[in-house]
Amino acid sequence: MNFALLAFYLALGAAALAFIVGAIRAARRSTQVRWPKPIELLIGLVTDFFDTLGIGSFAPTTAIYKLRRMVPDELIPGTLNVGHTPSAIAESLIFVTAIVVDPILLVTMIMSAAAGAWLGAGVVARLPRRAIQIAMGVALLIAGTVFTLINLHALPGGGTAMSLAGWKFGLAVGINFILGALMSVGIGLYAPCMITLALLGMHPLAAFPIMMGACALLQPVASLRFFQTGRFAWGPSLGLAFGGVVGVLIAAYIVTKTLDLTKLRWLVIVVIAYASFSMLRSAAQASSRSP
Questions:
Q1: Residue 267 belongs to what H/E stretch?
Q2: Are 195 and 171 within 8 A, CB to CB?
Q3: Cys bridge to 78: 84, 87, 95, 231, which one at CB 3.0-4.6 A?
Q4: Which of 132, 22, 115 is nearest to 77 (CA)?
């Protein structure tokens, strides 16, 4: 095995172990721990099913939480990062070995995203409710706009390269650092990472191991911050964790090649638009009530 890939798997194993230990310690300190409800398991299954297809899970999950008022707004970023971590690890183990990408580029982009996540989660954990509402409302608008442009073929489909060199390498690594930090606010990494690599001339498939490997490493890192602060919801997080792994396996091995992703994106866009409006309206109402 390539040394870079070996280093990634060792880092992933260490991150997964730290995640488990952090979750156990947080559970011992908390009085809010409970098993997930069936609807929370279903949300995990459906959103991570979409995630494995490259649509992303953060925006759809946020939209569902807002539609059903299941999780307080200030707890959504932590719930997303904690709950979707097991499925991100499962996706990484499947796609990093299935699609051959330059291992140096792969590991460097993954590590830069993880570093960004550690710094970003520390900031998000201290943000007030209204700041999180505004950040996530804008994040949903960005996600909806990106999906719309993809469906309208207004964004490039990518080239044929499976590696980058020179300034393109440095730019991709730097952007992934920023995307890793933004994950802590609830802005998904998949769509912007895929678009970045496409603009730099890489094959669309090359984005899958990079973005899935990045999320598999950065989400446990970010989750450690949220475990420390307790800024996440236990039941919904466990629903995402258990249901999400099942959704990943279904999407990866059964129906990945049979769905019309364009129609699926249009459906997600409608849901995201409503959730974004709802999030920003909540922030505006909070502002009008404040002295």
A1: helix 261-289
A2: no
A3: 231
A4: 132
